[in-house]
Amino acid sequence: MPRSKHSPTQSFVPIKEVRENVIILEDGSFRAVLMVSTINIALKSEDERSALLMQFQSFLNTIDFSIQIFMESRELDIRPYLQLLEEQHKKQENELLRIQITEYIGFIKKYTENVNIMTKAFFVIIPYSPSMVGAKKSSGSSFFSKSTKEEKTEASKRSFEEHRTQLSQRVTVVEQGLRRCGLRTATLGSEEIKELFYNLFNPGEERTGVIN
Question: For labelling, which of 43, 82, 111, 153 has a CA lying 20 to 30 Å from the CA of 60?
Answer without folding.
Answer: 43
